Amino acid sequence: MIQLQCFERSDFRQLIDWIETPQFLLQWGGPAFEYPLTDSQLEKYMENANSSTSEALIYKVLDKEAGTTIGHISLGKIDWRNKSARVGKVLIGDKSARGKGIGQQMIKEVLKIAFDDLKLHRVSLAVFDFNHSAIACYEKAGFIKEGLLRDTGKNGEEYWSVWEMSILENEWVQLKTKGC
Fold this sequence. Notes:
The protein is an alpha+beta fold. The protein has a single domain (2-178), classed as Aminopeptidase, CATH 3.40.630. 32% of the residues lie in helices and 35% in strands. The protein contains six helices and seven strands; from the N terminus they run βαααβββαβαββα. The chain has a seven-stranded mixed sheet, with helices on both faces. A hairpin with a 4-residue loop joins strand 3 (68-79) and strand 4. It is globular.
């Protein structure tokens, strides 16, 4: 089992250590970050986050049994007027925790916050089209593909495309009543 806790400055080093290549940084953080990831970039990322009026809630992911940090996730671009937000910065940084359903738990926990606590209507995300395991995780959690945005990011000489996906509050309620 996992638990989400607010990401803090004391967590910077762990996250920086997980981001080993420019390609991995692009996958995790998009164009908002430059390799290598630094404290100053993370401080900017944290500006105006994790308060009741924030547009972003940023979390570290704890393995409750081991008491260790194993990942990172955020709920950003919170739009209180339109009751929407975006899941982002999803990372299971501890390689030994991968392939064990942790991603699914992380998504469910952040959706509980979005729909049950914040009372949002829509949660969306973008995922690179080649990240098949993440796409499967998001679909299992109830996200639906809305469309493929072609060649949205450039990595070296190669362009990457992303799937735009979302889940609505009524779909979340249906999943919860099914016990998923």
